[in-house]
Amino acid sequence: MQWEVVIGLEIHTQLTTQSKIFSGSATTFGSEPNTQASLVDLGMPGTLPVLNKEAVQMAVKFGLAIDAEIGQHNVFARKNYFYPDLPKGYQISQMELPIVGKGHLDITLEDGTIKRIGVTRAHLEEDAGKSLHEDYSGMTGIDLNRAGTPLLEIVSEPDMRSAKEAVAYVKAMHALVRYLGICDGNMAEGSLRCDCNVSIRPKGQVEYGTRCEIKNVNSFRFIEKAINSEIQRQIDLIEDGGKVIQQTRLYDPNTNETRAMRSKEEANDYRYFPDPDLLPVIIEDAFLEQTRATLPELPPQKRERFQSQFGLSLYDASVLASSREQADFFEKVVSISGDAKLAANWVMVELGSLLNKQGVEIDESPVSAEQLGGMLLRIKDNTISGKIAKMVFEGMANGEGSADEIIDQRGLKQVTDSGAIESMLDDVLAANAEQVEQYRAADEAKRGKMFGFFVGQAMKASKGKANPGQVNELLKRKLEG
Amino acid sequence: MALDRSDVEKIAHLARLGLNDADIPRTTEALNSILGLIDQMQAVDTTGIEPLAHPLEASQRLRVDAVTEINHRDTYQAIAPAVQDGLYLVPKVLD
């Protein structure tokens, strides 16, 4: 049987506000437990939530960026369930009237085609605290620093048809929220988390199959692996005559399997109702326009501009525009060096492999945009060759200073003084008198390869610093003798 | 709409209320009389009327995004039944 996979995703993004969504506590990650948990966050009686304007603005910004209808009249609701990291016994969320309505996001598939993924809605809510299940005298430890951190939950349509498409969507969403500056995207710290809804159906069938939800997958790699293992589990189950039961599952990276959460962990009767502590939120047109004006250039527009302004290929332009930090770095290198193609090559190839090797992001790059731009200038004005540039780049990566300093200290300046090159060539020819004889005696057809030998010797003698064009020309003249 | 015993048991469980078996009939009756009033209200024709999110004719005021709270952990934890390493301790959630 041919199966079709149907995937929808819920992405939780922590918004980068200074304070929490309903209280004035700080949202800093990694602070001492419970030092950022105020009376409101603790759910103490008599406290009231007051909504953070910045969180609202960030949600609106997101909505505008995905071309969504903004809920200009949106309402907070209580989602009721009991868990110790949720002190109030309910999470303030949005149900019927979310702040962001239907929108969409385009993703680029592996074959280069663009697919539009629908976004059903996105709503504001508060994050819960953290439960630490290590042994605290047989008890569970609760840290409420995270409780009340603003979240934007982004719900997609079931538009994805493979794990790869799902990953492409999460990556595009990750890039977008970072471009907008509304989420730092740090998946290891839980700033962006993903729930995957997966079902299968016989190819051609219109109705959806029964879905399972894989909770809280926290890396791009695990999203792909978790979905693929769940797809296989469902196919095996159905082909063996079984039935998929709708349930919530957890992915275990160690076994590469999903397992059902115990029913105790599952509570899906949330009895939502409008939160009487919060009034409806009205987004005025002026606020909307004000927010629209703060939107930065987004990845698709940047990609197009890189193509038209700098003449880059679609591939190079998409790679460079894929993250805001990388695009900014690239543009800075271009503005210093004045050569977009050279800058694109160095940023994508040499810098890319350096960052990969060191396992760091571009904003922690050991070579700054200023340094790289400065070095490209020296390639362009013939101070160094492309080959020497790789040595200079290595020097910059090792913290030896700017390109000019390294060229100076290591004496890497290209030799273009023809007198100096000539005398060096005379030495090379004298040291290889026998080969010179053979060259002069050989016929034209054989000379090409022999000529290469002399070029090699000359570059070696100059430690790669002689201008290759001049070496060629002078050498030819001397050998003709 | 009327609730039966199993509905009441379920609702009590969701709300973590420990109802005595003997209390269930009385609670069922009380809840059903509330629902009777709601049924009466639902009979009203509300075509064209926007659902009410809040009884006040006002909209939510927004707060400037600024940290205004300082660390009062020791004060708050003084009334907690059990704490360790700055954490609130609760009965084990997972076994």
TrEMBL record, chain A:
<dbReference type="InterPro" id="IPR042114">
    <property type="entry name" value="GatB_C_1"/>
</dbReference>
<dbReference type="InterPro" id="IPR014746">
    <property type="entry name" value="Gln_synth/guanido_kin_cat_dom"/>
</dbReference>
<dbReference type="InterPro" id="IPR017958">
    <property type="entry name" value="Gln-tRNA_amidoTrfase_suB_CS"/>
</dbReference>
<comment type="function">
    <text>Allows the formation of correctly charged Asn-tRNA(Asn) or Gln-tRNA(Gln) through the transamidation of misacylated Asp-tRNA(Asn) or Glu-tRNA(Gln) in organisms which lack either or both of asparaginyl-tRNA or glutaminyl-tRNA synthetases. The reaction takes place in the presence of glutamine and ATP through an activated phospho-Asp-tRNA(Asn) or phospho-Glu-tRNA(Gln).</text>
</comment>
<dbReference type="InterPro" id="IPR017959">
    <property type="entry name" value="Asn/Gln-tRNA_amidoTrfase_suB/E"/>
</dbReference>
<protein>
    <recommendedName>
        <fullName>Aspartyl/glutamyl-tRNA(Asn/Gln) amidotransferase subunit B</fullName>
        <ecNumber>6.3.5.-</ecNumber>
    </recommendedName>
</protein>
<dbReference type="InterPro" id="IPR004413">
    <property type="entry name" value="GatB"/>
</dbReference>
<comment type="similarity">
    <text>Belongs to the GatB/GatE family. GatB subfamily.</text>
</comment>
<dbReference type="Pfam" id="PF02934">
    <property type="entry name" value="GatB_N"/>
</dbReference>
<keyword id="KW-0808">Transferase</keyword>
<comment type="subunit">
    <text>Heterotrimer of A, B and C subunits.</text>
</comment>
<keyword id="KW-0648">Protein biosynthesis</keyword>
<keyword id="KW-0436">Ligase</keyword>
<dbReference type="InterPro" id="IPR003789">
    <property type="entry name" value="Asn/Gln_tRNA_amidoTrase-B-like"/>
</dbReference>
<keyword id="KW-0547">Nucleotide-binding</keyword>
<dbReference type="InterPro" id="IPR023168">
    <property type="entry name" value="GatB_Yqey_C_2"/>
</dbReference>
<keyword id="KW-0067">ATP-binding</keyword>
<dbReference type="GO" id="GO:0006412">
    <property type="term" value="P:translation"/>
</dbReference>
<dbReference type="GO" id="GO:0070681">
    <property type="term" value="P:glutaminyl-tRNAGln biosynthesis via transamidation"/>
</dbReference>
<dbReference type="Pfam" id="PF02637">
    <property type="entry name" value="GatB_Yqey"/>
</dbReference>
<dbReference type="GO" id="GO:0016740">
    <property type="term" value="F:transferase activity"/>
</dbReference>
<dbReference type="InterPro" id="IPR006075">
    <property type="entry name" value="Asn/Gln-tRNA_Trfase_suB/E_cat"/>
</dbReference>
Automatic annotation (TrEMBL), chain B:
<dbReference type="InterPro" id="IPR003837">
    <property type="entry name" value="GatC"/>
</dbReference>
<dbReference type="Pfam" id="PF02686">
    <property type="entry name" value="GatC"/>
</dbReference>
<comment type="subunit">
    <text>Heterotrimer of A, B and C subunits.</text>
</comment>
<dbReference type="GO" id="GO:0006412">
    <property type="term" value="P:translation"/>
</dbReference>
<keyword id="KW-0808">Transferase</keyword>
<dbReference type="GO" id="GO:0005524">
    <property type="term" value="F:ATP binding"/>
</dbReference>
<comment type="function">
    <text>Allows the formation of correctly charged Asn-tRNA(Asn) or Gln-tRNA(Gln) through the transamidation of misacylated Asp-tRNA(Asn) or Glu-tRNA(Gln) in organisms which lack either or both of asparaginyl-tRNA or glutaminyl-tRNA synthetases. The reaction takes place in the presence of glutamine and ATP through an activated phospho-Asp-tRNA(Asn) or phospho-Glu-tRNA(Gln).</text>
</comment>
<comment type="similarity">
    <text>Belongs to the GatC family.</text>
</comment>
<dbReference type="InterPro" id="IPR036113">
    <property type="entry name" value="Asp/Glu-ADT_sf_sub_c"/>
</dbReference>
<keyword id="KW-0436">Ligase</keyword>
<keyword id="KW-0648">Protein biosynthesis</keyword>
<keyword id="KW-0067">ATP-binding</keyword>
<dbReference type="GO" id="GO:0006450">
    <property type="term" value="P:regulation of translational fidelity"/>
</dbReference>
<protein>
    <recommendedName>
        <fullName>Aspartyl/glutamyl-tRNA(Asn/Gln) amidotransferase subunit C</fullName>
        <ecNumber>6.3.5.-</ecNumber>
    </recommendedName>
</protein>
<dbReference type="GO" id="GO:0050567">
    <property type="term" value="F:glutaminyl-tRNA synthase (glutamine-hydrolyzing) activity"/>
</dbReference>
<dbReference type="GO" id="GO:0070681">
    <property type="term" value="P:glutaminyl-tRNAGln biosynthesis via transamidation"/>
</dbReference>
<keyword id="KW-0547">Nucleotide-binding</keyword>
<dbReference type="GO" id="GO:0016740">
    <property type="term" value="F:transferase activity"/>
</dbReference>
